[in-house]
Amino acid sequence: xxxxxxxxxxLTLYGYLLLAxxxxxxxxxxYSNPWIRLLCRLTDPFLEPFRALIPPLSGIDFSPLVAFFxxxxxxxxxxxxxxxx
Length: 85
Description:
CCB3/YggT, transmembrane, YggT family protein, globular, transmembrane helix
């Protein structure tokens, strides 16, 4: 049960980081801010494959939203899988 809670918590936290990244992309932020750079450094490795597969549509990058939903589905599947052990 400890492993389930850890995986669920870690992926939920990462989901919040992705959500923050989505929100800051909609508003003008200073990307030289150390906190914003850290957020980008933490989320870019997960977002890059989605950006390669999903081109921007009319200048809007929907790949972070897709990545967010994929992460939530992955979290759900992993938690259900781990609960069976």
